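Support request from a user on the community tier.

User writes: "When I paste my structure tokens into the form, the page sometimes reloads and wipes my input. The last time it worked, I copied everything first. Here is what I submitted, just in case something in the input itself triggers the reload:"
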């Protein structure tokens, strides 16, 4: 078995327990997938790639270089989703009628100087490289989960979605909260390993491990891209005139 990102953080007892209980059950990507992009806004990227501690001087909530390192992978996932035609939904913060939950954290934007107020206003703007295009919904949230207090469930149900492909940040925060809630709503939740990121290496790895054990399938980008292309090919085949004619013949025979 290929080494996973979390393996080096597991103790000998952890590994023995995993060997005793066997591989977790994976649910698969489903028949009607959607892509959910969570919190890919300016406040976690900043205006340019910088190491975490340097980036924090301007953007207290930055994820530093891990955000920028993940960007090309997320762009590949997003372009593939658009190419094959699955629904794409963007999530960000900035609900006006209630304080954002992260205002309770140390180093929050509440403590920024007046000189930084203009940047604070741009905090929840999705970066240009991943911005929604026409037809892609943008949902704002006020809690870690993309499901809590938002119309996301209604959006997914109206599209008859059965599985959600998730990317964004932070792995240990909003991604995990969204995955747990999505699992609670009985969606097949999938996390694309290279397309999520966090500020801390250990919490990133262990939260991926825990989600893969309990709430989601944590999958490499290549596997998800291959699945999406296969999904499109099967859909096109089922919509072909020959397939439709065969269905009619079967129904009338």
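"...and here is what came back when it finally went through:"
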């Amino acid at each position: 078995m290929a080494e996973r990102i979390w393996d080096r953080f597991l103790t000998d007892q952890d590994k023995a327990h995993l060997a005793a209980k066997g591989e977790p059950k994976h649910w698969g990507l489903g028949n009607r997938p959607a892509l959910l992009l969570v919190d890919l806004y300016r406040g976690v990227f900043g205006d340019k790639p910088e190491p975490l501690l340097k980036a924090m001087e301007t953007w207290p909530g930055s994820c530093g270089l891990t955000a920028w390192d993940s960007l090309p992978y997320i762009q590949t996932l997003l372009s593939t989703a658009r190419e094959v035609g699955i629904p794409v939904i963007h999530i960000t913060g900035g609900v006006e009628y209630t304080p954002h939950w992260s205002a309770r954290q140390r180093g929050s934007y509440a403590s920024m100087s007046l000189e930084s107020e203009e940047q604070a206003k741009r905090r929840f703007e999705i970066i240009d490289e991943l911005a929604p295009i026409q037809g892609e919904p943008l949902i704002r949230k006020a809690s870690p989960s993309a499901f809590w207090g938002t119309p996301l469930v209604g959006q997914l149900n109206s599209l008859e979605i059965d599985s959600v492909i998730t990317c964004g940040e932070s792995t240990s925060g909003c991604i995990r909260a969204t995955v747990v809630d999505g699992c609670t709503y009985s969606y097949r939740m999938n996390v694309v390993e290279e397309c999520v990121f966090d500020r801390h290496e250990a919490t990133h790895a262990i939260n991926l491990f825990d989600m893969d054990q309990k709430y989601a399938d944590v999958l490499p980008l290549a596997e998800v891209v291959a699945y999406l292309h296969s999904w499109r090919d099967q859909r096109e085949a089922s919509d072909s005139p020959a397939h439709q004619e065969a269905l009619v013949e079967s129904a009338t025979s």
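Agent notes: The reload is a front-end session timeout and is unrelated to the input. The first strand starts at residue 33 and ends at 38. Strands lie at 33-38, 88-92, 138-140, 163-169, 188-197, 217-219. Escalated to web team.
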